[in-house]
Design brief:
Blueprint (H helix, E strand, L loop, with lengths): L4 E2 L3 H14 L7 E2 L5 E5 L2 E4 H19 L5 H6 L2 H22 L4 H10 L13 H10 L4 H22 L6 H12 L23 H10 L9 E9 L1 H4 L7 H10 L1 H4 E2 L2 E8 L3 H13 L4 H7 L4 H4 E5 L1 H4 L3 H6 L5 E5 L6 E9 L2 E2 L2 H33 L4 H7 L3 E7 L11 H9 L9 E2 L5 E10 L4
Parallel strand pairs: 2-10
Antiparallel strand pairs: 1-3, 3-4, 5-12, 5-14, 6-11, 7-8, 7-10, 9-10, 13-14
Helix pairs in contact: 2-4, 4-7, 5-7, 11-18
């Protein structure tokens, strides 16, 4: 059930890790640049560099909160905190991959119920307030879609974890039997017997011997019942060459997905808000005099470090405090600076350089994406006409002659999943089709279409 970890971009990743270890100092300083955003994948689940940076910061802050002392990045590496952070992300990605494989989801209603119960999104009357919800997410630099996707994933992960942790307990009799077997010891003497030790080689079996063995083990040499199908298939991939994508469309799509390909420079920031400018100045004075650290100021307020962690923030998200924060070095404590909640002290925990993917680099992916979208739309527009041809009496062979659909044949059995049977929709239709059923157009999960006909049912046969 465990997912396989694949596609670790080794040259870039380990160079990046080396730079982290050698070049960064202070409170978990981070400075990532370049166009790669993925540290690795588990199945289909990506582990992004930004996620790793945030998780590493959380692990460091948790250790600082536990020890009450500031932790240098070099110390964190010696303690293996970087590996702990990565291991946690791999574990979460493994769960996310398993969730995706199982098709688990908590559904929109359950997601809404989870969100409205979070106190941080309540108004002064204790009821969920959408403006408060939006404001709180904006302060963390997260949009609603991203937050809700994370919450949905966390809830689905919990389902899988609960299923594993709360598994069926092994019966006592089975436990004792297995333990007795594993704990048993046996003494024996053995001697190898090889073909070279024979006085004469084993003769080739006669035809009669082969036939007798075949008859005695006929089940092992019998094909199961199968349905002989004829099908016509049309997938987006088959129409890609017919689809033209203009450069204007590519550039428009590039601009539409600007957030995917171009991330602005950001800072990993923590913020501690005070009720007045005077209180914030007094706290800053303690830090400058060495009488307090940012961690102790947070603890004195009865807060945890996670309560003041803003994550990665852009200039626009920081408002009037942006200039000072973006001019600071990693580890600097700044303030008092203005914030939407009042005067605050800020600490800069890391630098995330802008990540720019030029249009020329993004163009191949964009072209494939747009071509696939247009191919699916093209199939949608043709599906009704093709279905009308079938309703008018056209055969699958005639469809292949008059349309772009390709004709094929398949002896289908339960469990076969190659060729068109790789599609769940095709397998479902193949299982249900009868001799008297007329072909009809059905859609595949990738936007393709197919129609099939049962020619005959093949009985079990040698």
């Amino acid at each position: 059930m465990a997912a396989r970890v694949t596609k670790l971009s080794k040259p870039f990743v380990w160079l990046l890790m080396g730079l982290l270890i050698v070049g960064l100092a202070g409170f978990g300083a981070v400075n990532f640049s370049g166009t790669s955003r993925t540290l690795g994948t588990v199945g289909d689940q990506e582990i992004t560099i930004n996620a790793y940076a945030r998780e590493l910061q959380r692990e460091i802050r948790a250790m600082e909160a536990e020890t009450g002392e500031a932790l240098q990045f070099g110390q964190a590496l010696q303690m293996g905190i970087d590996r702990t952070a990565l291991a946690r992300l791999v574990a979460l990605a493994s769960l996310d991959h398993e969730v995706a494989e199982l098709g688990l989801s908590i559904g929109d209603e359950n997601l809404q119920r989870e969100i409205v119960q979070i106190e941080a999104f309540h108004d002064i009357n204790g009821a969920f307030d959408r403006e408060t919800y939006r404001f709180a997410l904006d302060q963390q630099g997260i949009d609603e879609a991203e937050f809700e996707a994370d919450l949905r994933a966390e809830a689905a992960r919990t389902l899988v974890q609960s299923a594993v942790v709360g598994g069926v307990e092994m019966p006592a009799t089975m436990t004792e039997t297995l333990m007795e077997f594993l704990g048993a010891r046996r003494s024996f003497t053995w001697a190898p017997v090889t073909a070279e030790m024979l006085e004469a080689p084993i003769p080739e079996p006669a035809q009669a011997d082969l036939e007798a063995f075949h008859e005695a083990n006929i089940d092992a040499f019998t094909l199961p019942e199968a349905k002989r199908l004829t099908y016509a298939l049309l997938t987006p991939e088959m129409l890609i060459d017919q689809v033209e994508v203009e450069e204007e469309a590519l550039r428009a799509r590039y601009e539409e997905l600007d957030a995917r390909y171009n991330a602005p420079e950001r800072r990993l920031v923590e913020r501690l808000v005070y009720s007045s400018e005077e209180a914030a100045r007094e706290a800053m004075a303690q830090v400058e005099a060495g009488g307090a650290t940012f961690e102790t100021l947070v603890a004195d307020r009865g807060l945890e470090m996670v309560d003041v962690d803003m994550g990665d923030m852009t200039r626009g998200a920081l408002g009037e405090a942006a200039e000072a924060i973006f001019s600071a070095e990693t580890g600097d404590v700044l303030g008092p600076l203005p914030s939407p909640l009042g005067p605050a002290l800020f600490r800069v925990n890391g630098v995330l350089a802008e990540q720019i993917t030029p249009f020329e680099e993004a163009a191949p992916d964009l072209r494939d994406e747009l071509a696939a979208i247009r191919a699916r739309r093209l199939i949608e527009t043709r599906a009704q006409d093709i279905d009308d041809l079938l309703a008018g009496g056209a055969t699958l062979e005639e469809l292949a002659d008059e349309t772009d659909m390709e004709l094929g044949a398949l002896d289908w059995t339960e469990g076969r999943d190659d060729g068109p049977a790789a599609y769940a929709d095709f397998r479902e239709a193949a299982a249900a089709v009868g001799v008297d059923d007329f072909p009809e157009v059905r859609f595949l999960e990738d936007g393709g279409i197919f129609a099939l006909r049962l020619d005959e049912v093949l009985p079990p046969r040698p």
